[in-house]
Request: fold
Amino acid sequence: MQEHYLMKKSVNLAEWVEADFREYPEKPGLPKGWQDTSKCFKTAAKFQIAQEKDVRFLRLSVEKAGKVQIRLPLKRKFNRETAFRITILGRSSAPVGALSGIRTFGHPEQSDEVDAAILVNFTPDWKEWSITTRGGPVPGPVAFYFNFGSATAINVDLLYIKVEEISLREHLPAPCIAQGNEGNWNGGWLETHDRMRRNALQKQPAIAWWGDSITAGWLNEGRAAWDREFVSKNIMNFGIGGDSVQTVRWRVRDAKVGENFSPRLVVLMIGINNLFRIQSPADIADGMATLLKEFRTRLPRAKVLMFGVLPARHNHRDGLRQRIKDLNQRYKKLADGKRVHFADVGAAVLESNGSISPKLSTDGTHFLAPGYERLAAVMAPKIRRLT
Reply:
C-alpha cells in the first residue's frame, strides 16, 4: 500500500479488535480466541508466538504452497453501514499480499467475500499500514479475518492488529484517489500508457474507450468484432489489463485529456478489478463519481457512456455476482441521461440459467471471440446513438 493511505489518527468511535502480540508469552499455537480456518483450503499451517531479540510476535507459517487463514469471532453486531480504520504492523519472509477485514460467518470459509476489507502487501521489512474501509450492514455474527496465499514456503509475522470504528466522513476510499499503476499487475503498464498517450495525440480520436483487460481484449480475442463495429468511428481503445477506477483517473490526468486530445464521447467499462481487490461497491461508486467529475471538467461538451461491470465467475451463485449487481445499481444512479449515460449489457454474456459458458470465457471474467461478438451486438448500437 502507498503512503497516501496513511491518515491522521482521530478519536475512534469504538474499538472492535486490538491484538498486540508483543504482550503474549512465547509459545506454539494461536492466542486464545483466535481460530485456524486454513484447512478449508487444504493447507497445513503452523502458528506460534515467536521471539526475535527482545520482541515477540505472531508467526503464521506454511511449509509449501497454500493459503493461510485465521479468524477472531466478534461479539459486536455489524447491523449498519460502518467505516473502520484497520491498522496492521507486520512483515513477511518474502513479498506477499494479505487480505484482512470483517466478514459474516454466513460466507463459505474459502470465499474472499469480505464485508469490510483491506489488502496489504507485506515485505521482509517491518511496516505499519493504517487503512480505512467501510461495509455493512451484515446480518448475523461476524469475525475478523486475516489470510494470505503463497506458492512457496513463507512466514508472515504480525506485531499488532487494531480495528476501530470511525466516522463515515473520515473514510477516504482508495478508488477516489488517482493512482499510477497499483502494483504493476501485468508489467509494462507505464510503457503501454505512454504509447497510448502518444497515439492519442497523433490520431485525435473522436471516441475514447477506457477500461481494463476486458476492454484491451477487443484488440485480441475481440478483434474481428472491433474492426467490424468500431474502427470506422475513429475510436481509440485505452484498455490496460489490471486497471481500476483510480488508475484510469490517473491516466486521464497524465495524458492531459482535454488539452492534448478532446474526444466527443468517452466510453467507460471499469470496476471489476476494484471488486477483485475487495473494495466495496459504495467506495467504487464514489471513485467513479470522481472520475466522471474529471471528465466533466476536462471535456465539458463530451458525453460519457458507462457500461456496467460485466458478470464474472461461471457460477451465477458466486458471491461476486451480487457485488457486481450492487455496483451497477450505484453506477446507474450516477447517470443523468443527458451528459452521462449508463447501460448494463451483462445479460448478453449469460446463459438462460445465469451461468457464463466456457465457450464464451475460459476463466469466467475474460472473454473469447464469441463473447465479444455478443457484446458488440448490444454495445455498438448504444455507442451509435450517442455519436
Summary: The chain has a mean pLDDT of 92. The chain is about 25% helix and 30% strand. The first strand starts at residue 14 and ends at 20. Helices lie at 189-203, 213-216, 223-229, 245-254, 272-276, 281-298, 319-334, 369-385.
